[in-house]
Amino acid sequence: MNTLFKALNDETRREILNLLKEKDLTAGEIAAAFDISKPSISHHLDLLKQANLVSSIKKGQYVVYSLNTTILEEVMQWIMHLKN
Amino acid sequence: MNTLFKALNDETRREILNLLKEKDLTAGEIAAAFDISKPSISHHLDLLKQANLVSSIKKGQYVVYSLNTTILEEVMQWIMHLKN
DNA sequence: CTATTAATTAGATATTTGTCTAAATACTTA
DNA sequence: TAAGTATTTAGACAAATATCTAATTAATAG
Description:
Two copies of one chain form a homodimer. Chain A has five helices and three strands; from the N terminus they run ααβααββα.
């Protein structure tokens, strides 16, 4: 839960998730969408991966990232639990 | 959204919300539940208030805190939007 | 093979955050 | 009104975080 909320607690990372919602993207394509250096984006992607919010697959020299919505159930349930 | 996720990104604050789920509590009662100084808890409560996750009312020399679940809808919707 | 492209790792740095103690404010009660 | 209790504010400090540039790793193409 900690890792999850930590990953979600950043505007850039939340925006990355929104981009990946539309379609899978390479690290470079993601970086191109922001005014932030590639290493920084790489770091954000790492945190998102640690939280299981995205997964990645190496395709040749590219790394393709995908959104993983499954883990969002946990956040939903945490919130639901609070609401009762 | 930023303020909300920021407030949720801390174990102590999440635990405070869980305590308030059961019943309203004074600042002192909340502080008593943790091994953290009162000023620190006060600061946590402030962040939760900024995020509208709790509200407070002064009752004599006490300040009673309550959980505000309404704002959680926003988190829910943000997540739901990502899941489609 | 060597050069190029994609991505990550390393290391540095400024900012943010959580925590503390001490002091201030607000209310109650003797 | 003076003393005591509840809470917050102020200021300091260590740890965590987001960012950068430079260097490294991995894969492709000439």
